[in-house]
């Protein structure tokens, strides 16, 4: 079976949906279905069960997909090792970054990187820091960028630290929180960030917020705050010079120190030998000096 057929099975196992898999593979559903039938004949086993709800793996299919993914991963590792032998930077750079970093910090850095190294392919995952750490431990990525202080024994580089602000269009001091009828707008985040905010809140107000609104994305949270719907606690990385129509109240801990959120770049020591990984780390280091 060819590597292309391995890739087809891997995408089908990820999506478990013929339409979505066909879209990712840029083929029609009938063509994909026919190709799957051919692959299954070669294995002499049914790999997927088809139903109106989508696809599900058979027991044989689970074994086959495990083998397929392991083979694809090894094939990519060999390609990376071969590309590291060349003088130019080639290969695939596999990144996983915290969603907030992917939205506000990464685009500018990634634009510089692809301009400098156009031969490198970019694989990017965004999500919570806990998910990114799992990708690192499972060797699914080259570089992870997470929020908060990491417990990581591999290579790590401090990237930035940004302060937390309570943001609102009319509230000028924390004392006004006690009397306002506005809701506290929160965005879903990893458990450490949520816990940090909860601890700060209860240390200052000794009670829960009167009203809350929870949204999925930090940008939604920010837009609701700057449009006067409610107040929010946002990291400074999400605030720009154009956000002039809101009050930004800095948060302090019990020792009167500004509350900050750190961002770290993590990788495995062995992966820094790959040219595309080393080039990205060097670019980030240089951008910090500017």
Automatic annotation (TrEMBL):
Domain HTH lysR-type: start-end pairs: 1-58
CDD domains named in the record: PBP2_LTTR_substrate (cd05466)
Source domain of life: Bacteria
Example GO molecular function: DNA-binding transcription factor activity
Gene3D superfamilies membership: 3.40.190.290, Winged helix-like DNA-binding domain superfamily/Winged helix DNA-binding domain
Alphabetical keyword list: DNA-binding, Transcription, Transcription regulation
Protein name, entry field: LysR family transcriptional regulator
Species of provenance: Bacillus taeanensis
């Amino acid at each position: 079976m060819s590597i292309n057929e391995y890739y087809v099975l891997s995408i089908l196992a990820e999506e478990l949906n013929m339409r979505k898999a066909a879209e990712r593979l840029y083929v029609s559903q009938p063509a994909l279905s026919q190709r799957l039938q051919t692959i299954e004949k070669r294995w002499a086993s049914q790999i997927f069960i088809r139903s109106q709800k989508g696809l599900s793996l058979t027991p044989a299919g689970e074994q086959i997909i495990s083998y397929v993914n392991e083979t694809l991963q090894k094939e990519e590792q060999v390609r990376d090792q071969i590309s590291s032998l060349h003088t130019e930077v080639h290969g695939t750079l596999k990144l996983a970054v915290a969603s907030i970093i992917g939205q506000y910090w990464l685009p500018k850095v990634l634009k510089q990187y692809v301009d400098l190294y156009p031969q490198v392919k970019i694989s990017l995952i965004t999500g919570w820091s806990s998910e990114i750490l799992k990708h690192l431990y499972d060797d699914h990525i080259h570089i992870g960028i997470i929020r908060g202080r990491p417990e990581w024994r591999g290579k790590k580089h401090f990237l930035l630290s940004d302060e937390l602000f309570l943001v609102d269009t009319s509230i000028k001091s924390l004392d006004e929180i006690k009397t306002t009828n506005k809701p506290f707008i929160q965005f879903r985040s990893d458990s450490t960030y949520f816990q940090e905010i909860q601890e700060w809140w209860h240390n200052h107000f000794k009670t829960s917020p009167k009203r809350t609104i929870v949204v999925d994305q930090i940008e939604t949270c920010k837009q609701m705050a700057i449009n006067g719907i409610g107040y929010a606690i946002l990291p400074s990385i999400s605030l720009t010079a154009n956000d002039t129509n809101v009050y930004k109240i800095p948060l302090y801990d019990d020792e009167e120190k500004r509350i900050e959120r750190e961002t770290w770049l993590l990788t495995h020591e062995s992966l820094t030998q790959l040219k595309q990984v080393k080039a990205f780390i060097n670019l980030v280091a240089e951008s910090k000096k500017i």
